[in-house]
Give the backbone structure.
Amino acid sequence: MFKRIFGFRPKAERAPAALKDFDIAQLLNRPQRRIDQRAARKFVNGKRVLITGAGGTIGSELARQTAALAPSRLALLDNSEFNLYQIDMELREKGLGGELFSSLTDVCRNEHLARAFDIVKPEIVIHAAAYKHVPIVEENRCAAAMVNVMGAKLVFDAATRAKAETAVFISTDKAVNPTSFMGATKRIAELYAQALDIAQSDTRFVTVRFGNVFGSTGSVAPLFARQIAAGGPVTVTHPDIKRYFMTTAEAVELVLQAASLESGEKSIVAHDGRIFVLDMGEPVLILDLAKRMIEAAGLTPGKDIEIKFTGLRPGEKLFEEIFLDTDKLVRTGADGVLLGAPAMIDLPLLAPRLAE
């Protein structure tokens, strides 16, 4: 499985033993969550679905799983031609997704979004496009604010104008008490989605917070894999740093589970700006992850592969949180899915600030 996820073998001179299967469940210290496929299929089947950031790690898996649930039309939006081509061809070769529509779209360009929404007339909108790499975002704040805040606002506004049934926003645990610019931009977008959810009744806005997605582009696991393949050192920012992890499949299933919840409990489906989070168990010590990955390569940490501490980067926390201390938590009835009711800002107060 390790080879399948990261797509490499260590050089023979560095690691004479073949890589063993890597037990992700053991890494996560919990079983992997599975969704109620019946509810998700009922939610998606026969509907028009639009996904932004559809060429990314999360977006492409969203496209795969959504396509398998038989939408009538699936719109894939991304600003990367190569990534868009990859997922478009994959779904076409498998005959999935109903009528496919792929659009090179910059979410910061309102005319691009308007064209896509006018053509597709989506009933479900999933907004996954974002800049997510904390150190890069810290150095490129203007670009990140445009995509993560204004891009999100334009997508949410387009979903509202189109009277989509449901709009899903992919957020992050870094939006909780943010210390990074990336986390702050995602929290602002959360607040706008929540404000829209309360201010109108046509479109239900669902926000889903992720932890670190194991194996995603820019995440720590592929970095460690490359460093192990090169013979080390493996770089860890701090010996005590911990992170919540989830697999790509879990992350996407959480999105579909949260969006498809149709419980009789009014508190779950009402327009009250709540935020869904996967119960990810205990956070993982990144140092332990590094050691386990080295051992999975048939090597010994500290002997065959050095582990080097590099120091926390700008905006980086030692520990992530998934809810604010003031949030009221609710069990949804769906296994492993939590629901929080965080503090919000009314749309009349928030919208003018975003327009500045």
